[in-house]
């Protein structure tokens, strides 16, 4: 019997998902399970590695069950994951030595500040494309080695393994035999030289990380090993890179933006690792056949989460849909701007001391204006990322491909197109991340022939074309910048 489907495992920050895809690239069944978030101290965020594994495994069983398939129907598994989250476990027993330290965790802020004071940031940036920020894995891994009793000695004796979430899942799926990762996940660690394509001994030396605990870095599309059920694991990529692939952004200048809790915009820059002059990150788009392609990335920490804040904290609306209805009931925000710098600002400002603020309110400002200003804030933040990308790459954006939960908002999508002055393209299947992982895995085993065949699997649901002249948008953007400036450097 031919194997007819690909199983994508999408291990996200708040939930694990499994999606079964058919040969046309259609998602035929989904399993999803949330798992607990642990906040042991302010600014700390942890996950239980075993809960990650258990939830991911059960969603795979659920999705296959819903699709009425068994393991023998699955041609390959693709893994995609929340990135940067750091795990360390014992080589022999498989026991994690500490909970997973999640990408949002800020505990290593002082460590990063000390490294900056030692003037090594430019070295890290030149080699890794990243900044010295607690966001990335390197200082989290050092924290575990320095703070978990006995960890450093065990690591130096070769008894511990480090991995991002993909490595952890791969190691478990393969019956604890394969310790590997792909180049996209490696490129988020602060330890990987994105130009040479290898762990960097100089950076490992600065952070005091023994090389023996690092996974082998492989292609994003290629067979990593077999699951215990005999299914090849054919692809691995960090979730934003998988979404770029799933959106078919295969050539320089093509870009996608994922509107989830935060917003993550990536632009493919081809074989060239473009160094940003506008505070974006340089990252590996994917590595296939030993060849790395690169992307520029901008991350906005609060995107759709702003709508959740209106709903849960302010209780202005009961649902995201109601937020959209209210926003659409007014012609504009009435001059109001909402800057969601709840956790500081990400790219291009990187201001950890900015805080949330509302500006431009008058006696007539009502909750509809709040809703509209919130949706517009998501678009303003994304528009600024796009502008930086165009300046860095020297390539004009042709269109913007979008995915993630908040793209359901037509108002947001239209405002985004008006701000950018290019089409915003919403696909039928907004699960681009899982699709990307499935495509990478399917390519590796010949389930799909090439990228052209994958491109044909993409179906557009709606294109939002700019409707307002640029001259109308320029003063609005200027107002946004003024608001951001005034919310900056609030905490000290
Ligand atoms: N109709 C909508 N309008 C605006 N935002 C929405 C809408 N529906 C969902 N969202 C937002 O989308 C986000 C969830 O998207 P999702 O891609 O599932 O996020 P993540 O993968 O980061 O958990 C939430 O922050 C939610 O507020
Ligand atoms: O799990 P998500 O979708 O919130 O994505 C998290 C990103 O990979 C963090 O860099």
Automatic annotation (TrEMBL):
It comes from Luteolibacter arcticus. Residues 6-246 form the Carbohydrate kinase FGGY N-terminal domain. Residues 256-444 form the Carbohydrate kinase FGGY C-terminal domain. GO terms for molecular function: glycerol kinase activity. It catalyses: glycerol + ATP = sn-glycerol 3-phosphate + ADP + H(+). The keyword Nucleotide-binding applies. Belongs to the FGGY kinase family. It comes from the Bacteria. It is an enzyme of class 2 (transferase). Transmembrane segments: none annotated. Keywords: ATP-binding, Glycerol metabolism, Kinase, Nucleotide-binding, Transferase. This is Glycerol kinase. InterPro entries: ATPase_NBD, Carb_kinase_FGGY, Carb_kinase_FGGY_CS, FGGY_C, FGGY_N, Glycerol_kin. Its EC number is 2.7.1.30. Key enzyme in the regulation of glycerol uptake and metabolism. Catalyzes the phosphorylation of glycerol to yield sn-glycerol 3-phosphate. ADP binds at residues 13, 17, 261, 304, 405. Inhibited by fructose 1,6-bisphosphate (FBP). Pfam families: FGGY_C (PF02782), FGGY_N (PF00370).
